[in-house]
Amino acid sequence: MPLDGEAPGVKPGVPTMTEEEFAASRKIFFERCAGCHGVLRNGATGPALTTDRTRELGIDHLRDFINYGSPAGMPNWGTSGDLSEAEVDMMARYVMQDPPQPPEWGMSSMKETWKVIVPVAERPTKKMNDIDIDNLFSVTLRDTGEIALIDGKSYEITAVIETGYAVHISRVSASGRYLFVIGRDARVDMIDLWMEKPGKVATIKVGLEARSVETSKMKGWEDKYAIAGAYWPPQYVIMDGETLEPLKIESTRGTTYDEQEYHPEPRVASIVGSHYNPEFVVNVKETGKILLVNYENLDALQVTTIEAERFLHDGGLDSTGRYFLVAANARDRVAVVDTKERKLAGLVDVGVKPHPGRGANFVHPEYGPVWATSHLGDETVALIGTDPEGHPDNAWKKVESLEGPGGGSLFIKTHPKSSNLWVDTPLNSEAELYQSVAVFDIKNLDKGFETLPIAEWADLGDEGAQRVVQGEYNQAGTEIWFSVWNGKEQNSAIVVVDDKTRKLKKVIKDPRLITPTGKFNVFNTREDVY
Ligand code: DHE
């Protein structure tokens, strides 16, 4: 059980819970709810669930909401079968209790969990396998806490590696040798792709809850440092890039950029390594601050704090790698940082709850280079001009809004060699939408999109939700892979689509492919190709 805290006392008007129910609810809240509502329930992607609100909403309202969900993105935990009727009732009562405060996680806790599994001296000095590393995919197997390494050509699973709980994303070191994986339990695993059989060489737990990991990408600093950002405690840690030894922990607690009021839980969302300065771009969700953390001298850490917008979440670089565009999702905006000049380049109003993943870069026939995001809260796809030199009038403006298939979109993708723009809708409430993807022709955006029935192509029968999530290209940009994400006890698959013909190329099925979600092609992830 990752969180600590005390069981509640009895309060007038607040339903009671047994110790066992409280402990079970705390675990469910951590696993299912804290990501959107926050450990202290102050809200971010989801609304605040502080007791002043929940006690006013009342038990019946809360029960219904948890059961049926909402079109704004709250999953239907009850009717989907994820939670039983008794669990829904228990969770409704739980959010009416005061939230337990989890413990801190400083250097001593990190050092206790830090382990170098294979010392640097015992690692190979050259690649010892015949794997085409650049075209390898690291696939999140969410509910087994594993990743699968899948060869991009043969579609064979090269290895399945045990990682952190509810594993979230993979990132690749600048050299391409090391793969870093982070779980929701804040465990970071470092995998050496040069070993005869790629495996873990170091591991550490950087907190109790986390989502992001990255490595130093600046010329001259390749593979030198890794960084992980935590949701709880709200902090980031810079680690040695070869051993994961924790070197510098910095708390992100502080004041919001606008009202300048103290926030106890400003979580670290996306992190990207700058190519223009020896810096990490660290996005702090609740305070709306973007930190440029300079790693040249860890004993005299220089941090440039850029005031951007609250509820920063996910984002990616523009095609030149100079500008970082990040969704401030509950503010319906995208903030743009110039990583070269270290300043805010723009704030762009987009649709409702932008959720780009790393977004999609392409050259618009009329507006020049653009970066695109789809949205959780509406059906639109926003295109933002990213070329202040060649197209200054369009830079950091929403130049076009495309009509997409529906809300509930999480990821959008293209590739420099492709003229397709792919939009998923895994959190839409209509099966027709969450089981398919939409694809636009970049050269004919006015034509609208074509819908491809990805889940039907996977041919898994009618069991489970079969949500189609996150497209990822192979290195050559000739095919795109989608996960058909089912329950833990059901069959899932990866569907490979030929980019040119938009026809089914391959369905990857394997009993080990349990709950596949994110996929990270080593070359595209390392080089920020999207
Ligand atoms: Fe993610 C990226 C947080 C739920 C799949 N997710 C991110 C990032 C953050 C984040 C901060 C950016 C990391 C970076 O770039 O450094 N995700 C959260 C949450 O807080 C949230 C909403 C709720 C939670 O409890 O975790 C959440 N995410 C999910 C899922 O349910 C998804 C769909 C399935 C899964 O595997 O958990 C999911 N998130 C992903 C993926 C990426 C991601 C695949 C990376 C996309 C990329 O292209 O880089």
TrEMBL record:
Classification via InterPro entries: Cyt_c-like_dom, Cyt_c-like_dom_sf, Cyt_cd1_C_sf, Haem_d1_sf, Host-pathogen_enzymatic-act
Keywords of this entry: Heme, Iron, Metal-binding
Source domain of life: Bacteria
Chain ranges of the Cytochrome c domain: 20-99
Record flagged with keyword ATP-binding: no
Keyword Iron tagged: yes
Pfam families: Cytochrom_D1, Cytochrome_CBB3
PANTHER family: DIHYDRO-HEME D1 DEHYDROGENASE, PROTEIN NIRF
Record-given protein name: C-type cytochrome
Organism encoding this protein: Kiloniella laminariae
Species lineage: Bacteria, Pseudomonadati, Pseudomonadota, Alphaproteobacteria, Rhodospirillales
